[in-house]
Design brief:
Layout (H helix, E strand, L loop, with lengths): L1 E4 L5 H11 L3 E5 L6 E6 L5 E6 L7 E4 L2 E4 H16 L5 E7 L1 H4 L5 H8 L4 E7 L3 H8 L6 E3 L5 H12 L1
Parallel strand pairs: 1-8, 1-9, 2-7, 7-8
Antiparallel strand pairs: 2-3, 3-4, 4-6, 5-6
Helix pairs in contact: 1-6, 2-4
């Protein structure tokens, strides 16, 4: 399942709502804060700083107009891996697929592992990379839902019905 939308469309909000209604969801969501985003493990509720406008301590990689923390990226990948191997987990949420994943980095290895796991998957895919993502990984046959500011509630309901 792909949830696609532009920046600020509400992909993370919808992923969080769907995960909270799921019997047992795992993976990662990336809520935005004042300075950047945080990677939150849906199984544990723990979080780590993922992106920011300026690099902080440790290793940070420039991507677009932001910097991504190597520590935060490792944390997000571990959250996805834990969801894959947790027998109780029925839904794996991956928020979000962006340019880094299209380039073969970031969360893509564990995204492919999640897609191959036989579990339900909900991928938040940035609108700007959706076409490239589908060209590379379309063999997984995705159901695609387009999200915007006006249809968040409707899309949330559709996803809960489809995944519930």
């Amino acid at each position: 399942m792909i949830l696609s939308g532009g920046k600020g469309a509400g992909k993370t909000t919808v992923c969080e709502r769907v995960a909270s209604r799921s019997v047992h969801a795992g993976g990662v969501i990336t809520p935005r804060g004042n300075e950047g985003t945080e990677a939150v493990d849906l199984l544990t509720g723990e979080g780590r700083e993922l992106t920011r406008k300026k690099p902080g301590d440790g290793k940070w990689m420039p991507v677009g107009n932001r910097f991504i923390s190597e520590r935060g990226l490792n944390f997000a990948n571990q959250a996805i891996s834990d969801a894959i191997y947790d027998p109780r987990c029925q839904l794996i949420v991956i928020d979000e697929i962006g340019i880094l994943e299209i380039r073969g980095m970031g969360l893509i290895v564990n995204t492919i592992n999640a897609l191959s796991s036989g579990k339900h998957n909900l991928l938040a895919v940035r609108e700007s990379v959706k076409k490239d993502f589908l060209l590379k990984y379309g063999m997984y046959r995705f159901h695609i839902l387009e999200l915007n500011e006006n249809n968040r509630d409707e899309v949330t309901g559709v996803l809960i019905d489809l995944l519930g």
